[in-house]
Design goal:
InterPro entries: Cyclophilin-like_dom_sf, Cyclophilin-type_PPIase_dom, Cyclophilin_A-like
Strand order of the largest sheet: 10-3-4-7-6-9-2-1-11
Number of strands: 11
CATH superfamily: Cyclophilin-like
Organism: Streptomyces tabacisoli
Shape: globular
Keywords: Isomerase
Number of helices: 3
CATH architecture: Beta Barrel
Distance between the termini: 48 Å
Largest sheet: 9 strands, antiparallel
CATH class: Mainly Beta
Biased composition (Low complexity): 68-79, 254-263
Domain PPIase cyclophilin-type: 103-260
């Protein structure tokens, strides 16, 4: 017999997946619209050097220009640029250090397990892509995560490219309900609900959460960072969110700087 607690977790997971699917459908509609617009504006855009058409960014130009409909992370588009050239040591450990308004968070990453993900974060951090962004989503029931990495702060932004899923079996074999446990402290990639659609958005797990093994687990928070995220979660969701348990955190988490260094 399924317990009340198990049923609540199941319902929370199902809600999470429905939201992912709705957002992907909205983004698909936006991509179709933008393809038409792009065909009309191609001459004008390319006349400026092709930066926007290529999805390039520098400094404050951080948005995924493929569309701005609600989505948990960027997905492929007609103007998508290739992911960054591999520049990390695939055998090395890396540390991502986030300085935020709610405390510092250090994330240990192993390039051997997730080379493309680590390489992307190194590339984006070096470009100061994350600096000045906010963690835009907190969930406090069924799934316990703080989601960050969107330059728009809406759930729709990204770097203009996508990366492949990695290490999906790293948390073990899925159970009968199709889920695995993402332990507290885990850092994983957000996506649109479709394979290989990770961009820049990621989530910080502050309490064991069951999810399908579809989200690249690429790092682990240090004790101080986990404690900082748990304090944010304790503050709850701000009024006006998707629900009382899913929305922007009451305690605003502004990311000051993000660095990724070897070792």
């Amino acid at each position: 017999m399924v317990s009340k607690d198990q049923r609540q977790r199941q319902l929370a997971r199902e809600k999470f997946l429905r939201q992912q699917q709705r957002r992907e459908a909205a983004r698909h509609k936006a991509r179709t619209r933008n393809t038409v617009i792009a065909s009309v504006l191609a001459v004008a855009v390319l006349g400026t050097g092709g930066a926007y058409a290529a999805g390039a960014f520098s400094g404050d130009d951080k948005k995924d220009t493929a569309g701005s409909e609600a989505s948990p992370s960027p997905s492929a588009s007609s103007t998508e640029k290739p992911e960054p050239k591999m520049a990390v040591d695939k055998k090395a450990a890396y540390t991502m250090a986030m300085k935020t308004s709610q405390g510092d968070i250090k994330i240990a990453m192993e390039a051997a397990k997730t080379p493309h993900t680590v390489n992307s974060f190194k590339y984006l951090a070096d470009k100061k892509f994350f600096d000045g962004t906010k963690c835009h989503r907190l969930t406090t029931s069924g799934i316990f995560v703080l989601q960050c990495g969107d330059p728009e702060g809406t759930g729709a932004g990204g770097p203009g490219y996508t990366i492949a899923d990695e290490n999906l079996s790293g948390l073990g074999k899925a159970g009968k309900d199709g889920s695995v446990t993402y332990p507290a402290g885990t850092v994983a990639m957000a996506n649109t609900g479709q394979p290989h659609t990770g961009g820049s958005q990621f989530f910080l797990v502050y309490k064991d959460s069951k999810l399908p093994p579809s989200y690249t687990p690429f790092g682990k928070m240090d004790a101080a960072g986990l404690k900082a995220v748990q304090a944010v979660a304790k503050g709850g969701v701000a009024a006006g969110g998707q629900s009382q348990t899913d929305g922007a955190p009451k305690k605003t988490v502004k990311v000051t700087t993000v660095t990724v260094e070897k070792g």
